[in-house]
Predict the structure.
Amino acid sequence: MSDSETYDEDLITSDNFEEKTMDDIKVHISGDSILSRSKGIASIDISSIINSNNSSPNQFLLSILLSITAIMLIIISIFSNSWMTGVESDDHYGIEFGLTGYYAYEVGVEDDSAGGSYSDSSEWGFDEENAGSRAYFAGLAGLIFLILGIISAAFTLYLFVMESIGLQSFSHLGRLRFSSGGLVIVGCTVWLILFPTTQMVELTDINFDLGTGFYLALLGGVAGALSGVMQFGSESSSTGNKNSEDEIMMKSDIIDCVKRLSLKSINKTTGILTLTIFSIIVIFISMFTNLWMIGTWEGEEGEYHYGHFGLHEESLEFDGDTYILDYSFDGCKESQLCSDIGKAGFSSFVVLLISISILVAAMVFIHLDSIGLFKSNYGKIAAILGGAVSILATLVFYTKFPDLSDDNTITSPGISLFLVGFSGIVAIVSGLMVPKSEGH
């Protein structure tokens, strides 16, 4: 007879059968651990974990995706040489500066390019006024903060998953995840302050602008901070029981549990926040394209030439060659027509930055309202306002863009202008979908 059969027989023949049975049931149901143990191997009681988070809506999946996105954006920005960029239009060459090195090229000529680290900057004359050394120090300082941000984001993401499935319990984890994004934002700010922009302009006769690498890192920092905010409302499934060292967590159970928690965390608020994120991404990408306005003119031999205008520069295709004119170039500022285009682009760029900031704030308020931590209609209002501001940016660019008909150039709105307008509408719709907060 097996041990279990012997136990059952003794239990039935005992006088306190009912009392023992009820005690065993209570222990089985309300045990201190969410883990059921068998032969030293711990397996996750998934149903208890899933049901433990029914008390409040959470954004488990969105929080994880934001952390992963933040890590990817920061890594891409580290290896990008586009933290500071500029183009010399007369000689048709450009220079891009990154955290650890630079890249110089001739516009439209792929084979004529060169790059290197700031330690080799003497070849380009960057050592004058210690510009190369200062650029190296600025990049090193920024890189340290970015690497710390990546490590912090990855480690706190792991802790968040472990806490969510009930294996560990950590206090102030949400604040730690928020601070990982803060480290990246601080790193971007430190680099911007320390980088010798003025000296580089004097040495190269190029007016430089912040490049996509800088904004990617900044966006990664914002995503990392938002991942910490999205954690608010996600309750730990851990009941404080610590597993013994000889217990082994089955990997398949962990993966299955994460999948179930992810699916369970998808709710109406998730859809609203996803629409807002979509608007932010499309607006951000459109800010760095040269497809805001398309210009077409006919050449002397009847052939057509095209110009693509962006918020920072324009690219012209002529006789098979591509020419790029940065609006910050001195020659552009001396031309009334080019200067007006630059003003239109700069004004729209600033308005779009404001729009993105408002939409990020909208995400925070929408989530805090959904979990009852801060009941308000600020998220609803901010989403609608952010969308309206992005639409305003398209109107600003279109109305301030000068008339080129005197130069026999026909202009038409580009796809980027329409995409930003569409994103603004999506943001407004997401705001309208937010339920009105009780008591407001």
Notes: Residues 267-440 form a domain with the Butyryl-CoA Dehydrogenase, subunit A; domain 3 fold (CATH 1.20.140.150). The chain is about 55% helix and 15% strand. The longest helix spans residues 336-370. The CA atoms of residues 25 and 31 lie 10 Å apart.
